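Hey all, sorry for the wall of text incoming. These are the two entities for the joint prediction.
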Amino acid sequence: AQSVSQHNHHVILSEAASLELGCNYSYGGTVNLFWYVQYPGQHLQLLLKYFSGDPLVKGIKGFEAEFIKSKFSFNLRKPSVQWSDTAEYFCAVTGSRNYQLIWGAGTKLIIKP
Amino acid sequence: GAGVSQTPSNKVTEKGKYVELRCDPISGHTALYWYRQSLGQGPEFLIYFQGTGAADDSGLPNDRFFAVRPEGSVSTLKIQRTERGDSAVYLCASSFGGNYNEQFFGPGTRLTVL
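and here's what came out:
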């Protein structure tokens, strides 16, 4: 069965620190990859997505992610985080059923001001 | 325009009762999805509608769960004989089409079964 794993359940950083959140998936075929964010008290929003082409994808609010096919990974990065980035981040993939999102367990990110 | 809306935002019920959860998708979105999110986990797929029909209901956990979308817009998720294990946040999403299209999520309904 397809699955997604996110390496860290909780991450605490200071403002201006660099961020990298890990995401690995298990599916050998063609995948579409997503990062969603959920700010406190808000609903899930799309941060960025990869369907094809350049494996380095840029999203909103200065986030980017790199698809490394050989490692089955799609890690999320941001060079300098802000207090407002405090949120929960979810990695998701579609595989054999390309309408169905398979989700990781999420990473709670806390940025200390 | 308006986003996906879900009602109620919170629902507390007793074990064995019947509940209905409603989803209003973004106008014009033909695809609608239901997911369930338990505490500390990511969402799990329940069912996908394309128009009025359920194109894939393979994620529904058992026959106590049923969902409808009679006019291709609003959808209702129905749970019979609720159990404590049904407690979760039920998320609805919609998109312009099914495949490869961004899914827009509603705020969810938090269901608590006592």
